[in-house]
Amino acid sequence: AQSVTQLDSQVPVFEEAPVELRCNYSSSVSVYLFWYVQYPNQGLQLLLKYLSGSTLVKGINGFEAEFNKSQTSFHLRKPSVHISDTAEYFCAVSPNNNAGNMLTFGGGTRLMVKP
Amino acid sequence: DTGVSQNPRHKITKRGQNVTFRCDPISEHNRLYWYRQTLGQGPEFLTYFQNEAQLEKSRLLSDRFSAERPKGSFSTLEIQRTEQGDSAMYLCASSAHRGGSHEQYFGPGTRLTVT
User: Fold this and answer.
1) Triad B74, A42, B89: Cα angle to 5°
2) Can you tell me the distance from the alpha carbon of B25 to that of B94, in angstroms, rounded to the nearest whole number?
């Protein structure tokens, strides 16, 4: 079984400031890692994913994340945020055993970008 | 691709009534997933299909819930004898599961309110 912990339920930040959204996971098997964004009353959109290879992955909208296996973390970062980045962000994992790849999500972090 | 579509987008029903939701995945995606998201929480896995076969069901899926994917294309999720605790956003996702792709594409969701 897998579990995902997003340590911050809300992160307020000023526009053009850097931001880091934290994600830690627990799993007895190797996993794939994902970050999704959800705008109000919409479904989830994939920001980026880590499957294998380089531990630093780049996604859409200027976001990037780094996989740290020893710390079981997959923190999301952006060097300069915009008002339009205000949304709910979800970290998720799925087992990489090719048996279904169902996602286990964290509780979400609400990013609030202030002018 | 037109994306994953879900109907209806909103459903209000009285406790004890039955409801049915429909999900149309991206064409030729062979995997289809259902998740439930309650307010302020991350989505939780309910069940998934590979083609027409339902391969896994979460313990969250009580016997009042049933899902089908009769021809390996669209899927329906039915909730019988609805309870107030069933109020949530029901999300559908699909994936191709070919060529190493593990990305799930989400629909906009169906928001269920049980009064």
Assistant:
1) 65
2) 6
- What mean pLDDT do residues A13-42 have? 94
- Count of other CB atoms within 10 angstroms of residue A76: 24
DSSP state of B25: -
Residue A16: which residues within 8 A CB-CB, separation 6 or more? A80, A81, A82
Residue-wise pLDDT tens digits, A82-113: 999 999 999 999 988 766 678 999 999 999 99
The amino acid present at B86, given as its one-letter code, is D
Closest C-alpha to A29, from A62, A68, A1: A1
Render the burial of A15-54: b for 16+ CB within 10 Å, e for the rest.
Answer: eeeebebbbbbebeeebbbbbbbbeeeebbebbbbbeeee
Looking at the complex, does the CB of residue A95 fall below 8 Å from at least one CB of chain B?
no
Question: Is the Cβ pair B43, A106 closer than 8 Å?
Answer: no
Beta strand A31-38 with A44-50 is antiparallel
- Say whether residue A87 is in contact with chain B using an 8 A CB cutoff: no
Q: Does residue A24 sit in helix, strand or coil?
A: strand
